[in-house]
Write a structure and sequence with these properties.
Elements lengths: L1 E7 L1 H4 L6 H12 L3 E8 L3 H14 L2 E5 L10 H8 L4 E3 L1 H8 L15 E3 L3 E3 L8 E4 L2 E4 L3 H11 L9 E7 L7 H10 L3 E6 L3 E7 L2 H12 L10
Parallel strand pairs: 1-2, 1-3, 3-8
Antiparallel strand pairs: 4-5, 6-7, 7-8, 9-11, 10-11
Helix pairs in contact: 3-4
Length: 232
């Protein structure tokens, strides 16, 4: 399964808020064997949301959209997703009934748009907040508040499946450029994918479809690179 992620918010593009939702979702999906192909952050603009969601819907099995749900002037995500699928945003009876059953909340206290969803959308209840989410064809629309997003995603997580992978990490103080030949030999020796990430040390991530191959490949490489001080 291949997925695109769209995070919505002017505050993300301005650097006022760290985009932890994208990182968390990528980690969760990777653990389920789902391949995240692209992550895009867009402003609180209906046209931009619709354009990217439409593109991802055409290219991937599912789209996850986070942020911009609610009744305020810049909460336009539902309108953008609806536009991507040529739908209207309208009163959603199931969302209204769900809100009426919530303790501590009254529809009279909230903007009516709180329970407006794209036509024929599937309701995703928000167990830790007010604004509901929705599923529109392949698009899953989740809140931007991290605690709300995580709770809502967990409710649909089983709908995201793929071939699980297993990863091992090897660290070395050697420069990345000096490792190229050994990484090439590693790929030739084992059926694995390899990523290298430089920093204070070089972190080499080895990924395979079974744990034994990942472990064997990591052991092979550890025997051929300089160990870090912690491993020496």
């Amino acid at each position: 399964m291949q997925v695109g992620i769209v995070t919505v918010g002017d505050e993300l593009l301005a650097g006022d808020t760290e985009n932890t939702n994208a990182t968390w979702l990528c980690d969760e999906l990777d653990a389920r064997g789902v391949r995240v192909r692209r992550v895009t952050t867009v402003p609180d603009e209906t046209g931009e949301i619709a354009r990217v969601v439409n593109e991802y819907h055409a290219e991937y099995d599912a789209v996850i959209v986070t942020g911009g749900l609610g009744p305020t002037h810049d909460d336009v995500t539902m309108e953008g997703v609806a536009a991507a699928f040529g739908r209207d945003v309208r009163e959603h009876p199931e969302a209204e009934a769900w809100l009426a059953e919530r303790d501590g909340y009254s529809a009279d206290d909230l903007d009516p748009r709180t329970t407006h969803l794209p036509a024929d959308a599937r309701l995703l209840p928000n167990e830790t907040g007010v604004a509901p989410g929705a599923v529109v064809e392949s698009a899953y629309v989740l809140p931007g508040v991290p605690s709300e997003m995580k709770a809502m995603f967990r409710g649909v997580a089983d709908e995201f499946t793929g071939e699980r992978t297993y990863a091992e990490t090897v660290e070395t103080p050697e420069p990345e450029s000096a490792l190229l030949d050994r990484i090439g030999d590693l790929r030739a020796e084992f059926d694995v994918s390899v990523g290298s990430y430089p920093g204070e040390t070089v972190r080499i991530k080895i990924t395979a479809t079974d744990p034994e191959t990942a472990e064997s490949a990591a052991a092979w490489l550890r025997d051929r690179v300089e160990a870090t001080d912690a491993e020496a």
